[in-house]
What we know:
- The protein is an alpha/beta fold.
- The chain has three domains: 3-187, no CATH class; 193-381, no CATH class; 389-596, Rossmann fold (3-Layer(aba) Sandwich), CATH 3.40.50.
- The chain is built from 20 helices and twelve strands.
- The strands form three sheets. A six-stranded mixed beta sheet has the order 6-7-8-4-9-12, sandwiched between helices.
- Strand 7, helix 18 (519-535) and strand 8 (539-544) form a beta-alpha-beta unit.
- Helix 6 (174-184) packs antiparallel against helix 11.
- The longest helix has 49 residues, at 3-51.
- The two termini are 47 Å apart.
- It comes from Solitalea canadensis (strain ATCC 29591 / DSM 3403 / JCM 21819 / LMG 8368 / NBRC 15130 / NCIMB 12057 / USAM 9D).
- One of its GO terms (biological process) is mismatch repair.
Amino acid sequence: MATGLMDQYNNRITYLTNEIQRYSKLVNNYSLARLATIIGGFLFFFLSLQYGNPWISSLIAFTIIFLFAWLVSKQSKYEGQKDYLHNLKSIIENEVANKIFRTNIYDDGERFMDDHHHYTSDLDIFGNRSLFHFINRCSTFLGNNTLANWFKAPTATATVTERQSAIKEIASKDEWRTHFQAVLLFNNKADNSLIDKLVNYINQPVVPMRILRFYVISIAPFLFLGVLIFSSLNPSVSGLLIILSLIHLAIVFRHQLYVNKTDALIGKTGKTLGLFSAAFKAIEDEKWNTALCTELSNNVNGKENHRISGAINQLSALIKKLDYRLNIYVGIVLNSIFLWDLRQVFAIEDWKTQNKAAIGEAFEHLAVFEALNSLAAFEVNHPENCYPEVVESEKYLYVAEGISHPLIDQNIRVANDYELSNENKIDIITGSNMAGKSTFLRTLGVNAVLALSGASVVAKTMKLSPINLVSYMRIRDSLNESTSTFKAELDRLQMILEVVKDQPQTFFLIDEMLRGTNSVDKYRGSKAVVEKLVAQNGVGIVATHDLQIAHLIQKYPDYVRNFYFDIQVENDEMHFDYKFKKGECKTFNASLLLKQIGIEVE
């Protein structure tokens, strides 16, 4: 474990704890000040009415209102800062827990689990304690989707290289990285409803209503002011003001369906949008050097330097103003004077016209930054990782030194080397139970997924050509699909054979095929599958307990290679070294394992 990194995390946690306590005291002090202002203000106001004159009373009332509003504003500011510091502390504490216990407060990607996917189920890419759960630092629904898509399919070599550079840059910006996560932590449930609402609203056509719009925006306030002044100067016609107010209320009531439609789509989202604005602002304000980060930032800034953060803030403010209608008394007053509901809806529609093209894309760019930031956090927490060299090759290339599994604690995991250099081969791995065959297959698979998503890998060095992974490891029966284990195995093998035939650069990982049948048919079937894969020029690895499969090297000496994992037995004690060796396994342990649970094998 990187002690220096853990010390940095713990020092930041201590600092943030002290800062949270300081802001908590400030918030409490302002609460007391507000209470004192109300009590003292009313006391002075009452005394001024008893012994002063109306002008002094009015001045005291104005002072009380102004001071109280200022105190509320300051307290709200400190509350917001305290909440932000709480989020930041949660982020740092999560990094500590992630590094020590492999836990994570972020989404585990369970909704992406798919037993029919070519490899994600077998390699534990999604779900509790999965690769996604370990690495994910995305708060938004779109961010989670983006990272999941990177793990579900390999990308072009040029894109991998571009992502690697971007991830390295983000990893070097520790303050920015944790700040970006902290301002988005409010959305950590990955709820897509807000963005869906916003995009749905943006795609709705704008209702013209030009005459009404002109009256509400350009005439109504000035007309009301004119009638108010005229009524003040001529008390005999004061009823005009009441009539105008009732007309305004009637107009608003007449168009309530129109207002309510807008409110249903984006109402009560003002505060949340304001928080999203902070995330966009973090991207906009940072100076980026790599091509991908610069491109994404420029797109977020919008055309002609039109900042998305400013646009989102503007919409947030407009929605908050529209929400004034939720207070019936305030709503009546504002609508009678300004036709408030219509005025805000028209302003929101003007905003939509100006920003429609940029907003949807902006959230997609935000999602990419979240995915990149997730992979950057993985690099920061595991400086022993390396960035693989992904190169185009006509033949298969997978060369790794010191490769191991990212979900196994680095203090106990065993690293191995693997080499497939510009050639087509099928590797047969034999070995004892629990010796490490399945883990090794998953190690190669998971690190290939990381490499082809742009992430660092758990290896000293790694060189890889773009490959399409397909696996056969965790075969389940299905009552819902009326599928037995053996039928599920056959379906999976058929899929692998079709993918190998139809998709170039397919690399398969097969672990103990045909477990659902008798030993004779298992051997004959496994042998036939391997020979079929050889005939199709397939490339990959087959792990098996059946030594006879390893004998295929005699028939295909230029195509099949044999490797093994074994054990050492001393005084009926098994010792595993989990090392990947060339050749065939000579030591098996099933009988010994049965003996340990009280079953003697003759």
